[in-house]
């Protein structure tokens, strides 16, 4: 038997025995002689939870809006799994920060409204002790590609704003696509308790490496997929090594720029315009029947994602009238044009656009835009692919008079077709594997979003090493520990037997029931 396993097993016996002994003593001292049921575990947890909380704030500066998250945890347990939870969330009014490129000064006002609410949530004496992190995602990545000066000005303006705030500002940065993907993966698995750090010892030999869930994130400007590939030999070029609580995870992650919900729809509109014979009246099969809207061409063609689709004679302020035809079949056909399958040349490990991707495996949690879309179709949790298809067809075939009551309903037919296409034809989920995707936006009251994983990582709240000593043991040390722990375990067990026999006598030989 490996040395560590031996020590861990004996430690496990010790811990269980001592815990049980303690329970027994408490029960004896409170003279509770019912069937032996031990509630001390609960007592322990209550005692451990009795700590002053700490707070952290993360601003998720997405392409379409900024969300402020407030997290809380008991200070003394900050490195444990599952102790950080979200206590407050607030959406900053107005568009995402990348929209302020021409007027960064105007950022302050909408931020104020949210920050004032946050200040009420956190005790005043802790304000100075609360860190604020701002991470910007694909919207700012695109702006930086388009005009780096403008992107830096927006970030500088945010720095200025937070210098005047009572909190400890830890900087505003643009995070990369792979970071966004992995932080989302960490958040999802942290919240679902998949990093079982508390039951570390021994268990890992019995259960093998912990099972994690893949993460599917759909933002406004990019979409991320992250999971642990089946083939552990998967080449390290496409995976990121993450070390959490003493375990190594090779996470495959990819962020598809311009495949976020909003940018994808802009590309669809630009494609529809390109394909139509007129430049002012365009049918949109993804809009509800009889819906008409007039858009300035720069609204969709001004983006970096649609640059290659701009008409030859491009006048940013030219108006285009889009007319909805509510045709789900045609909508799907148009959506398919957003993906380039020829670039993969039938390679199996390639979803689209020539990107390498191992076969998707295991369970997935699909959050943010994925969740909001299926929620608009009145679906939730997990359901069959056929169910999704029929809900989508029903939703997309409605005419404008029927759907106008729904807020934000306009784009959901497109989103539904887009995620259907992305998941089925892009990532190759089929009727059989589809139910492995769980559409979920939060666990408890904590949102599944990259922001929590980001904070956990920046604050080192997920240590790379587990708590157990994993250093190579010298034979002498091993022998010493073995003797000591075995003696402890034997003593404890003997004492336990002694106590139990006492209990049984008092209960006239009745055999106790041990409930934990
Ligand atoms: C958490 O881990 C970090 C780094 O591993 C360490 O510096 C810090 O003291 C730990 N905090 C607690 C409360 O254990
Ligand atoms: C808050 O206080 C704790 C404990 O005193 C300290 O470890 C931590 O670094 C402080 N955080 C900030 C942001 O000042
Ligand atoms: C980039 O942004 C800056 C600041 O907003 C602006 O002055 C400049 O004209 C922009 N450059 C381009 C090429 O758009
Ligand atoms: C990994 O990337 C390097 C350089 O980008 C390349 O030379 C190497 O062949 C790649 N390895 C695999 C297994 O794809
Ligand atoms: C555009 O014109 C061509 C040829 O005139 C025609 O075949 C096609 O159906 C037209 N497309 C649309 C969207 O009207
Ligand atoms: C698809 O990708 C290939 C290879 O990168 C490229 O040659 C082709 O033009 C692309 N097709 C479209 C429709 O973008
Ligand atoms: C979803 O359910 C609500 C309430 O039952 C209903 O008003 C709405 O029309 C439904 N939406 C769809 C797309 O079925
Ligand atoms: C989706 O549903 C529609 C309408 O019920 C049906 O015509 C179509 O064949 C379905 N598509 C798939 C792939 O099942
Ligand atoms: C979630 O929040 C609601 C309302 O704030 C609260 O009643 C509920 O207990 C919370 N649930 C959890 C699991 O924290």
From TrEMBL:
- Report the GO terms under cellular component: plasma membrane
Residues at the catalytic site: 180
**Known Gene3D superfamilies for this protein?**
3.30.420.40, Exopolyphosphatase. Domain 2 (3.30.420.150)
Keywords, sorted A to Z: ATP-binding, Hydrolase, Membrane, Nucleotide-binding, Transmembrane, Transmembrane helix
User: Which residues make up the binding site for ATP?
Assistant: 220-224
Query: What lineage is this protein's organism placed in?
Result: Eukaryota, Metazoa, Chordata, Craniata, Vertebrata
Question: Which BP terms does GO give this entry?
Answer: nucleoside diphosphate catabolic process
GO molecular function (one):
ribonucleoside triphosphate phosphatase activity
The family assignment reads: Belongs to the GDA1/CD39 NTPase family.
Q: Which gene encodes it?
A: ENTPD3
* Protein name in the entry: Ectonucleoside triphosphate diphosphohydrolase 3
Please give the start and end residues of each transmembrane region. Answer: 364-385, 406-427, 476-500
Where does the source fall among the domains of life? Eukaryota
């Amino acid at each position: 038997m490996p040395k560590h396993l031996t020590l861990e097993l004996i430690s496990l016996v010790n811990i269980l025995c001592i815990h049980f002994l303690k329970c027994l003593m408490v029960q004896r001292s409170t003279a509770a002689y019912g069937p032996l049921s031990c509630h001390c575990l609960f007592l322990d947890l209550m005692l451990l939870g009795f700590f002053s909380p700490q707070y952290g704030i993360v601003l998720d500066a997405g392409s379409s809006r900024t969300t402020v998250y407030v997290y809380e945890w008991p200070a003394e347990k900050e490195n444990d799994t599952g102790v950080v939870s979200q206590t407050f969330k607030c959406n900053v009014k107005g568009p995402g920060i990348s929209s302020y490129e021409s007027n960064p000064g105007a950022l302050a006002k909408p931020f104020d409204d949210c920050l004032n609410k946050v200040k009420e949530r956190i005790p005043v004496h802790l304000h100075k002790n609360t860190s604020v992190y701002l991470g910007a995602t694909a919207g700012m990545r695109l702006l930086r590609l388009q005009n780096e000066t403008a992107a830096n000005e927006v970030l500088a303006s945010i720095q200025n704003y937070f210098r005047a705030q009572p909190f400890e500002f830890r900087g505003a940065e643009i995070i990369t696509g792979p970071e966004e993907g992995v932080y989302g993966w960490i958040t999802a698995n942290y919240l679902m308790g998949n990093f079982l750090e508390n039951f570390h010892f021994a268990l890992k030999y019995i259960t093998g490496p912990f099972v994690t869930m893949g993460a599917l994130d759909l933002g406004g400007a990019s979409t991320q997929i992250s999971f642990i590939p089946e083939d552990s030999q998967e080449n390290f070029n496409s995976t990121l090594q993450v070390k959490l609580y003493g375990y190594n995870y090779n996470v495959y992650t990819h962020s598809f720029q311009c495949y976020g919900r909003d940018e994808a729809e802009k590309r669809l509109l630009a494609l529809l315009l390109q394909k139509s014979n007129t430049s002012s009246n365009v049918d949109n099969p993804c809009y509800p029947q009889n819906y008409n809207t007039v858009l300035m061409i720069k609204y969709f063609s001004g983006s970096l994602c649609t640059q290659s689709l701009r008409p030859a004679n491009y006048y940013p302020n030219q108006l285009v009238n889009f007319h909805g035809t509510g045709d789900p079949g045609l909508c799907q056909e148009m959506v398919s044009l957003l993906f380039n399958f020829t670039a993969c040349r039938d390679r199996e490990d390639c979803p689209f656009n020539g990107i390498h991707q191992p076969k998707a495996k295991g369970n997935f949690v699909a959050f943010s835009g994925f969740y909001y879309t299926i929620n608009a179709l009145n679906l939730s949790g997990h359901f069959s692919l056929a169910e999704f298809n029929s809900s989508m067809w029903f939703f997309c075939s409605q005419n404008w008079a029927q759907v106008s009551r729904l807020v934000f309903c306009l784009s959901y037919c497109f989103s539904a077709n887009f995620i259907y296409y992305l998941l089925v034809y892009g990532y190759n989920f089929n009727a059989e594997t589809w139910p492995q995707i769980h559409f979920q936006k939060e666990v408890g009251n904590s949102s599944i979003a990259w922001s929590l994983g980001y904070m956990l990582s920046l604050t080192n709240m997920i240590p790379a090493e587990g708590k157990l000593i994993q250093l190579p043991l010298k034979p002498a040390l091993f022998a010493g520990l073995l003797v000591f722990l075995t003696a402890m375990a034997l003593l404890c067990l003997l004492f336990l037997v002694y106590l139990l026999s006492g209990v049984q006598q008092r209960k006239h030989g009745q055999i106790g029931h041990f409930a934990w």
